[in-house]
């Protein structure tokens, strides 16, 4: 039995689902509550067509902060909760945040540290506390699986992690999103945007402060012949006044510019395949810059041309799967060349071939192999 602690985010849930194809998986989902320390309930469910069990449980809000962390022995409490599902010594525990280091230290079975964000750069965290938690997690973990090379370097140089423990495991897409053959042209537009005229540029993701809205606004203004679809929530605040102003202007644009809000994860591929071209307009900022771009892998499986900023370090190494740009003028030039070539850039087959091994199924197997390798190395040392 494998435990994934915890699976609140969609990318962790997708990883756990893929892992469930190969093992008995319990995905733990924390429900942050003011009185979580005094609540004992647990809700267990099994999603439709899923191989894993989901365990929702109460967790004290601020559990890892002083003085609450000193008053609550949450490491022991959570370790006991998970252990009730079976023999902990035979059960790998996947920890997805440094704040679960006290749980990892109490766990009698093997621990995998699956680090999907550069948590030390989160707004409002105590950096010294996060670094110490990362050090503790790296000490106790048999295998450490960050999802980017930059997080790997941080773990080695700032958290003291042994390089031999580390396997980089990026984000991915569902195996079912990869078509049987390369998609050489855009698919039909989903019903909610079917009225838009072609060609269509699309942006998928959180429409918050990680998007360079000033850049996007400049591109939209220079491409009156192009329609735009933005798929994702717009509820997050944009702190920069100029960026926020540009987002507001686009939200009010209407016509050929559509913000359709969030859509279920399993429907995103339909949108990605319908775009003539995909944009990944990341604003360079942490922790985004040091992570792994989930939307890149969604667009990779869709085979459509991609244009991206240099706001994500991982993407700096992905040409010719995508094209990079810095200014609105550069992006417009790319878009005009694509228009002249019926939105085919000649890389559709390459994107399809690469996407076949960039799935959550491959990521789950990579983590399992990393643990097996470390346990084998430990047994023969």
Q: What is this structure's SSE topology?
A:
Blueprint: E1 2-5, H1 10-19, E2 25-33, E3 43-45, E4 53-60, H2 68-71, H3 74-83, E5 93-95, H4 101-106, E6 111-113, H5 127-140, E7 143-144, H6 149-157, E8 200-204, H7 213-222, E9 227-231, H8 241-251, E10 257-261, H9 268-274, E11 277-280, H10 294-302, E12 306-308, E13 323-324, H11 328-340, H12 348-355, H13 360-380
Parallel strand pairs: 1-2, 1-5, 2-4, 5-6, 6-7, 8-9, 8-11, 9-10, 11-12, 12-13
Antiparallel strand pairs: 3-4
Helix pairs in contact: 1-13, 7-8, 7-11, 9-10, 10-12
Oligomer: single chain
Number of strands: 13
- What would you call the structural class? alpha/beta
Shape from CA axes?
Answer: globular
CATH fold-level name of the largest domain: Rossmann fold
Largest β sheet strand count, sense and barrel closure: 7 strands, mixed
Helix content: 25-40%
What is the radius of gyration computed over CA atoms, rounded to a whole number of angstroms? 22 Å
Distance between the termini: 26 Å
Instruction: Count up the domains.
Output: 2
Q: Which architecture of the largest domain per CATH?
A: 3-Layer(aba) Sandwich
Mean pLDDT: 95
3D architecture notes:
The protein is of the alpha/beta class and 381 residues long. It has 13 helices and 13 strands. The chain has helices at residues 10-19, 68-71, 74-83, 101-106, 127-140, 149-157, 213-222, 241-251, 268-274, 294-302, 328-340, 348-355, 360-380, and strands spanning 2-5, 25-33, 43-45, 53-60, 93-95, 111-113, 143-144, 200-204, 227-231, 257-261, 277-280, 306-308, 323-324. A seven-stranded mixed β-sheet has the order 3-4-2-1-5-6-7, sandwiched between helices. A six-stranded parallel β-sheet has the order 10-9-8-11-12-13, sandwiched between helices. Helix 7 (213-222) links the parallel strand 8 (200-204) and strand 9. Helix 1 (10-19) packs across helix 13, helix 7 (213-222) packs across helix 8 (241-251) and helix 7 packs across helix 11 (328-340). The two termini are 26 Å apart.
